[in-house]
Design goal:
The longest helix is centred in the last third of the chain and has 18 residues. Helix 1 runs parallel beside helix 13. The chain is of the alpha+beta class. The chain is globular and about 65 Å long. The protein is built from 13 helices and 22 strands. It starts with a strand and ends in a 9-residue tail after the last helix. 46% of the residues are buried.
């Protein structure tokens, strides 16, 4: 880096990646694997984007409730899963309804729970058959069939598969609302089938050190000095980028790997999807007052919240000794009085007194997921103009797989179009 006499400083690399979320880290890793020099410029004080974990008084607090799926192809390719010390959720969920609590589980994972799926307990025999056929097709069929299939709303696809409104309202709508942040099941059916396939094939879990361990592992495998934190980019220039502090950094190519709002600011004219907001409330209590002693998602048939669970039952590392941690997520922001109303709802759903639950923290995540209305393209071209590229889950699908795959695509395009080669493995 040198001073050019005009008050600015310049530093050159082959590629600058703006943003150290999953997409940016994946892009940087693939570029480095191809022998290119890369700088990753991150505006915040840590890597991960929306996938970060804070520590507070012995608690691990993910920035919004998240679940890690082991079956995603990009996860299998990139992650050293054993190092994450993954802790699984129960394969299924509990649903609180007017007649009490019902369990919906995958009998192929827990054969002893098959009795919970007997016709009449949560669904009719016809519904169970229809859902079984849909699941078998998604689990065993080629993924290309899903990608080529007609794209409709998820609700329309469920109805077309012969699943009744009763089962949809009792379980699928409450469950999928938490997956898509979409209370009306208007999300792309192609994306639904891909997610359903991944759930059937993989394990839903959390790293013992919090969800932030996932991007942390990716960043740690880059050469020292590759990621520059607290380095916000003000604008793209003809030769690279202009930083907020007035310095310039030059590169042959720039990849914008931020969220959609920042990407639209840096790349004028870029069309970005609308996004959804979610708020997660964390509450603590002594172990003796733990409201549910199993690592299971609890849903509400009335959809007063998206989901709730005792995180310390999933991963005991999420709470200090002698304490339990409950996570509950709702659509939208933290409006006045919402926290108090939520505690009342949780008292009913958990069947316990929540008056003494201690608020630990509240996270509102704006732009948590893109609105993926059909027809939704499962991938998009990364190139915007000569030497300028964009990636992120908003350019693919709102998932870990989507973010990583979008970053990988951007790297391939940069290598092919700017440097004239792209290794077969990328």
């Amino acid at each position: 880096m040198g001073d050019h006499g005009d008050g600015t400083q310049r530093s050159r690399s082959d590629v600058i990646v703006i943003g150290a979320g999953l997409a940016g880290l994946a892009c940087a890793a693939d570029l480095r694997a191809a022998g290119r020099t890369v700088q990753v410029l991150e505006a915040s004080d840590g890597v991960g984007g929306r996938m970060r974990t804070d520590r507070s008084d012995g608690f691990l607090l993910d920035r919004g409730f998240q679940v890690f799926n082991t079956s995603y192809p990009q996860v299998k390719r990139r992650m050293r899963l054993r190092e994450l010390r993954l802790r699984p959720f129960t394969p299924g969920a509990l649903v609180h309804g007017a007649t009490g609590r019902s369990r919906f589980t995958d009998p192929t994972r827990r054969p002893g729970s098959a009795r919970d799926l007997l016709p009449g307990r949560l669904a009719s025999g016809r519904d169970l058959l229809a859902l079984g056929v849909l699941s078998a097709r998604d689990l065993l069929g080629p993924v290309s069939a899903i990608r080529r299939g007609a794209d409709r709303t998820t609700r329309t696809a469920l109805a077309g598969a012969g699943i009744s409104d009763e089962l949809t309202e009792a379980f699928l709508r409450p469950f999928l609302a938490g997956v898509f942040l979409d209370d009306d099941l208007e999300t792309s059916s192609r994306f639904f089938h891909l997610v359903w396939r991944s759930m059937l094939r993989g394990t839903q879990c959390l790293p013992a050190a919090g969800i932030g361990a996932v991007p942390g592992q990716l960043a740690a495998r880059l050469p020292p000095g590759t990621v520059c934190q607290e380095t916000p980019v003000e604008a793209l220039t003809d030769t690279g980028v202009l930083l907020a502090d007035g310095r310039e950094r030059a590169a042959e190519a720039v990849v914008v790997a931020t969220g959609p709002a920042a990407a639209a600011r840096l790349l004028p004219g870029l069309e970005v999807a609308a996004t959804r907001t979610v708020t997660t409330y964390y509450h603590a209590m002594p172990n003796a007052m733990t409201p549910l002693r199993e690592p299971t998602l609890l849903l509400d048939e009335r959809r007063r919240f998206l989901n709730t669970c005792v995180l310390s039952e999933v991963a005991p590392t999420y709470a200090p000794a002698g304490r339990s941690l409950v996570s509950t997520s709702v659509l939208g922001g933290d409006t006045p009085g919402r926290g108090a109303t939520l505690l009342s709802d949780l008292a009913e759903v958990y069947g316990t007194d929540t008056a003494s639950w201690e608020p630990v923290s509240t996270y509102t995540v704006e732009g948590a997921l893109p609105v993926m209305s059909p027809p939704w393209p499962l991938t998009r071209r990364a190139r915007r103009s000569a030497g300028r590229y964009v990636c992120g889950d908003h350019r693919a699908t709102g998932s870990v797989q989507g973010a990583l795959a979008s970053g990988a695509r951007a790297a391939r395009e940069v290598l092919n179009e700017v440097f004239g080669r792209g290794p077969e493995h990328l």
